[in-house]
Amino acid sequence: QVQLVESGGGLVQAGDSLTLSCAASGRAFSSYNSAWFRQAPGNEREFVAAIKWSGTRTYYADSVKGRFTISKSVAKDTVYLQMNSLKPEDTAVYFCAAGWALSSRSFDYGYWGQGTQVTVSS
């Protein structure tokens, strides 16, 4: 079993930066691929970014490419999402996920955090 806890969300203005953290506990987390998804009110959960268990490969949604950076600390069992140049349309609940597949599909991830709210005002 893997438990994921997100933190770092908040209310910011457009153009600001924010870093989300996803702290993991449980065995074998270092072997899992990780990802961030987000869900805005009335919308389906959408893929944001993913990182290979080794940290050697990353993938991004087109909407965040060049603005967001996913990374991980193996020593701390933590995955990060650095978000720069935030836009109002980035407002959503952000979820951390872990799974065996490196994928942009939410159903490929078996472990999820509870989510953290990010609100970007214009």
Number of helical segments with 4 or more residues: 0
> Would you tell me the overall average pLDDT?
95
**Overall shape:** globular
- Low-confidence stretches at least 5 residues in length (pLDDT < 50)? none
Q: H/E order of the elements?
A: EEEEEEEEEEE
Distance between the termini: 40 Å
Q: What share of the residues does DSSP label as strand, in percent?
A: over 45%
What percent of residues adopt helix (DSSP H or I)?
under 10%
Question: What does this 3D model show about the protein?
Answer:
By secondary structure, the chain is mainly β. It is 0% helix and 50% strand. The strands form two sheets. Strands 2, 4, 5, 6, 9, 10 and 11 form a seven-stranded mixed beta sheet that branches. It has a four-stranded antiparallel beta sheet with strand order 1-3-8-7, with no helix packed on it. Strand 4 and strand 5 form a beta hairpin. The chain is globular, with a radius of gyration of 13 Å.
Keywords:
122 residues; mainly beta; 7-stranded mixed sheet; 4-stranded antiparallel sheet
Give the SSE map:
Layout: E1 3-7, E2 10-13, E3 18-25, E4 33-39, E5 46-51, E6 58-60, E7 68-73, E8 78-83, E9 92-99, E10 111-112, E11 116-121
Parallel strand pairs: 2-11
Antiparallel strand pairs: 1-3, 3-8, 4-5, 4-9, 5-6, 7-8, 9-10, 9-11
